[in-house]
Amino acid sequence: MSKRVLLGRKLRSSQLGETLLSKRIALPVFASDALSSVAYAPDEVFIMLSLAGASAYVWSWKIGIAVAIVMTAVVASYRQTVHAYPSGGGDYEVATVNLGSKAGTVVGSALLVDYVLTVAVSISSGAQYAASAISPLNGHEATFATLLVVVLAALNLRGIRESGTFFAIPTYAFMVAILGMCAYGIFELAAGTLPQVKSAELDLMPAPGYGDQMTTFALIFLLARAFSSGCAALTGVEAISNGVPAFRRPKSKNAATTLLLLGMIAISMMLSVIVLAKQMGLKLVDPNDLDRLTIDGQPVPADYDQHTAISQIAQAIFADFSPGFYFVVTVTGVILVLAANTAFNGFPVLGSILARDGYAPRALNSRGDRLAYSNGILFLAVMAIILIQVFNAEPTRLIQLYIVGVFVSFNLSQLGMIRHWTRHLKTERDLGERRRMYRSRVINTVGLSFTAVVLVIVLITKFFAGAWITIVAMIVFYLLMRGIHRHYSNVNDELAADEDDKVLPTRVHAIVLVSKLHKPTLRALAFAKATRPNVLEGVYVSVDADTTNRLLEEWDERNIDVPLKVLHSPYRELVRPIVEYAMEIRKANPRGVVSVFIPEYVVGRWWEQLLHNQTALRLKGRLLFAPGVMVTSVPYQLRSSELAREREEREGAWVRPSELRMGNVQTRSDNDRQIQP
């Protein structure tokens, strides 16, 4: 009952089409990560440039344009990908098909790491934002962030359509808030009435080694660092190519349209925020370098609270309209949390594809009650919570691990697409189609050029700042995935059927385990007889002479026509004598089979399971490794097992055998209408 309250009613497999997303729902579901980067990517650009003093902010809009150009190229490239590979594999499928399984595994490991970091960074940012507004949360950001991850996981376990509807309102509200604020700010800029932000009154000192003493090479390196930080705005763009199966038909067209909308909105928002921040005199530094900010030559107070770029811009623009300010900062904080939903939609789909191909545990390819990939959602939540706890939900530390994985996948994906078009051009004869392929290949080539440059810059500028941790994590995931694939391949080879598998065993020696002479034992004996083995005997392990003698007497009194074998155990062991006896029978007849029947109790309460069947569990665990030994459990339902049956009946999940035979079974649809199958 608690599971139904949390997740909702189960959905039939035939209802999968009902969970698919329209463009208006898919946009907030898959774009919330990329759009939310507007809340921190401009901040990172200004923080990096602040090392050279406020004069370096003149480069901010130029860096913003550079990031926008890269994003345009990436969006255009991925529009080709969603048309060519609509199955939802995205970067992984492109790299695997065109570059080989090893390249595909590299992309898979990079995306898995990036999805986990997306959740950790987004949720941590949202927790820090909430803590700045709600004082009781100060010092408890990691705990609050963990709670948010749990809530998001629960929402996604209910199914992507329901979670998408839930996330649509705040995501669209964020778009309206930021674009509306920026439009009004640009209008004021054109009218000459644009106010200054609060931090404009501060003086910003360059960091040691920067400023006027900075060499040309140092300036280039600083601009490269600011550019790489601004490229955090590109994270999440690939999510749509990985989630094409979640779209309604025509899937590729709807996904490509959604991707175009995402690029246009994200670029507009990012450039607008950067331009307004520069024009309004924004000054931001690393939270650990607040001593570089001064007021009239004096350091800022120890309790100085440095607000984000969006917060300062909104406070200045809506100085005479406080509801506008609160609306902007509220939806910004919410979108930072909901941005993790992009990963919660992309990670399970990617995990299911990896599991299908044998690079991840097959449990990741199983849909839950609500047709979501539940195991993938839970795995992502656990990994993100671990990162949040280890880094204490500090985005400044987590952001250094960011974007490395996504740009690795960008590069391999674009290289794969170039090979894809080249391969198809060799066989395509239609001139119109060839022109389209040439155009697509040029777009992907430009995209590869840009993303390769960005990846080099990111590795150089962020490696020692924490990017090495991401690289190590990618290597670990890569080795795990290759190991899993090797295991599944070996198992498939070992289990492949051949002619020898048709050979019947020469002899079946059945033994029924006897603890005492009661109903479960008699039922097991009757069932063993029905299988018609060559040899049938009961086996009893003797640890006490008096008990053994009473059992033998009762066995004879009941005139049971099955011989009883007594195994003496001077050290009171129960499992070892049975295993050794079974192996002796097997050794005497290597081509025969030993069939062990174990009577077991079926109970209805969880604590009763602790009081029964423990010896049977240990015995089955040992016999599983014995070749030629088959184990059969013979259940006997105790009265308490009726409790479990009654619970099922109350939940409407129990079907009486008589009803099933008569064809009177009814199922309940989502709107509780009775349907006769």
CATH superfamily of the largest domain: Amino acid/polyamine transporter I
Terminal CA distance reads 25 Å
Q: In the CATH hierarchy, what is the architecture of the largest domain at level 2?
A: Up-down Bundle
- As for the CATH topology of the largest domain, it is Amino acid/polyamine transporter I
Q: How many structural units, i.e. domains?
A: 2
**What is the molecular shape?**
elongated
Judged by helices, strands and strand pairing, the structural class is alpha/beta
Q: Strand percentage, roughly?
A: 5-15%
Structure commentary:
With 677 residues, the chain is an alpha/beta fold. It has two domains: 2-484, Amino acid/polyamine transporter I (Up-down Bundle); 501-638, HUPs (Rossmann fold), CATH 3.40.50.620. The protein has helices spanning 2-7, 23-36, 41-49, 60-84, 90-99, 101-133, 141-157, 160-191, 216-230, 239-242, 251-279, 309-317, 322-338, 340-356, 374-390, 395-398, 404-425, 431-495, 519-530, 545-557, 575-588, 606-609, 614-623, 641-650, 657-662; strands spanning 203-204, 293-295, 298-299, 508-513, 535-542, 564-568, 593-602, 629-637, 667-668, 674-675. The strands form three sheets. A five-stranded parallel beta sheet has the order 6-5-4-7-8, sandwiched between helices. Strands 1-2-3 form a three-stranded antiparallel beta sheet, with no helix packed on it. Helix 12 (309-317) runs antiparallel to helix 13. The relative contact order is 0.12. Mean pLDDT is 82; it is low at 1-7, 11-18 and 653-677.
